[in-house]
Specification:
With 416 residues, this protein is of the alpha/beta class. The chain folds into two domains: 8-38 and 296-415, Alpha-Beta Complex (Aspartate Aminotransferase, domain 1); 44-279, Aspartate Aminotransferase, domain 2, CATH 3.40.640.10. The protein is built from 14 helices and 17 strands. Strands 4-12-11-10-9-5-6 form a seven-stranded mixed β-sheet, sandwiched between helices. A four-stranded antiparallel β-sheet has the order 13-14-17-16, covered by helices on one side. The radius of gyration is 21 Å and the shape is globular. The two termini are 40 Å apart.
């Protein structure tokens, strides 16, 4: 499979926005960790939903029946995407943050004063502050899992030290949106399960790059956002059925009592769900070239395995080039033999130039990057970067090219 050549031109031709220019200057999209571009197939399915199935579900007329088909199709697609045992365990919402804030209220009802929640100093604030607020409201204790600021990885022995008979929930990211580190979720969830606690995995940054498998991970919850993996602005939560059935959903009285509807307040964005299903099928289409006419899950696994190999080559090129620029420090894993432990989101600082100034200068050249803490308040604080402006974050995905990496590095050499 690794000898398979990625047809990058065919990939890029599916994304109309990649051909856009501004005053004749082409765009280079390295702002992907905050949101990717979408293929035309996603736009088409969303349009199809709005034009042919624009109705609420549950009716006996054609538009309502078609709307239900879009919703059911998206739920099954996401079940395949995360390898859920049942599509009934897939819950949709506006975004990962909203879903986490919503379900945290139900989880909180299962916790008692003095119970402990373990949070990670590597995480996006969407997997931190909802639990901090819950702890405030329910008189819970927060314990912090640190990461090694030299290796940018967890020492899981420290998790062993934190787990206790009072631990009820452990929240950690699949990958860091600031350092790019991929965490050993399987090992973490195993420790949490042995301690009798629940695990809540923020897969927003890992889902666009590596295959998600909730059954293999052994987690109890996993959340992600479709707009980070080439879909629309849509959030997805998977919950283990036996855990979800213990929770008391916050809902209005007429809403169904059954999963997953009881955790989806109000009318969902049917067009968003349709686009999410199309984003999953986009990956499966790539995998079909590799795995043939297998199941959608098999095609997804094949696609992610191959695309991540290509993305690692982009990350290696970017890291090597940044290391050649005097004054630059990469805030993440850099060893060439360790790139399988990070996503191609590369953050750096410079000894003389502020991140905001660097990002602005790149933006003037139509190279799109982000600067600051990127909602990673805790990792920026742990690295001593919160008060100094955070980082410059360059995030590649598989539609980016080696030429775009080189052009960005050349621009940085001029700027710095």
């Amino acid at each position: 499979m690794k000898n398979f050549t990625l047809d990058l031109e065919a990939i890029r031709n599916q994304f109309p926005s990649l051909a856009d220019t501004d005053d004749g200057v082409r765009r280079i999209y390295f702002d992907n960790p905050a949101g990717t571009q979408v293929p035309l197939s996603v736009v088409d399915r969303m349009s199809d939903c709005l034009l042919r199935g624009n109705a609420n579900i549950g009716g006996y007329f054609p538009t309502s029946v078609l709307a239900a088909e879009f919703v059911d199709g998206a739920r099954q697609a996401m079940a395949d995407f995360v390898n859920a045992p049942s599509p009934d365990e897939i819950i949709f919402g506006q975004n990962m943050t909203s879903l986490t804030l919503h379900v945290s209220r139900s989880i909180g009802q299962q916790l008692s004063p003095g119970d402990e929640i373990i949070l990670s100093q590597m995480d996006h604030d969407a997997n931190i502050e909802p639990w901090v607020l819950l702890a405030r409201d329910r008189d819970l204790e927060i314990r912090w899992l640190p990461f090694n600021t030299e290796t940018f990885e967890f020492d899981l022995d420290k998790l062993d030290d934190l787990l206790s008979e009072r631990t009820r929930l452990v929240c950690v990211a699949g990958a860091s949106n600031l350092t790019g580190t991929i965490n050993d979720i399987r090992a973490i969830c195993g420790k949490v399960r042995d301690a009798g606690a629940w695990s809540y995995i923020d897969a927003v940054q890992s889902a666009p790059h590596i295959i998600s498998d909730v059954q293999d991970f052994g987690c109890d919850f996993l959340v992600c956002s479709a707009y980070k993996f080439f879909g629309p602005h849509q959030g997805i939560l998977w919950g283990r059925r036996e855990v979800l059935e213990q929770l008391d959903p916050y809902k209005v009285r007429p809403a169904p009592e059954e999963l997953p509807w009881c955790f989806e307040p109000g009318t969902q964005s049917h067009e968003g769900l349709a686009g999410t299903g199309a984003a999953v099928d986009y990956f499966a289409g790539i995998g079909e070239t590799l795995a043939g006419a297998g199941t959608r899950r098999q095609r997804l696994v094949a696609a992610f395995e191959h695309l991540f190999e290509y993305e690692k080559s982009l990350a290696a090129r970017l890291i090597s080039g940044l290391n050649d620029i005097p004054g630059t420090t990469i805030q993440g894993i850099t060893a060439a033999d360790s790139l399988d432990r990070r996503v191609p989101t590369v953050s750096f600082t410079h000894s003389e130039h502020k991140p905001e100034a660097i990002a602005e200068a790149l933006g003037k050249r139509n190279i799109f990057v982000w600067n600051g803490h990127n909602y990673g308040l805790e990792p920026a604080k742990a690295l001593g970067l919160l008060q100094s402006g955070g980082v410059v974050r360059i995030g590649a995905v598989h539609y980016n090219t080696a030429g775009e990496i080189d052009e960005t590095l050349n621009a940085l050499e001029d700027i710095l």
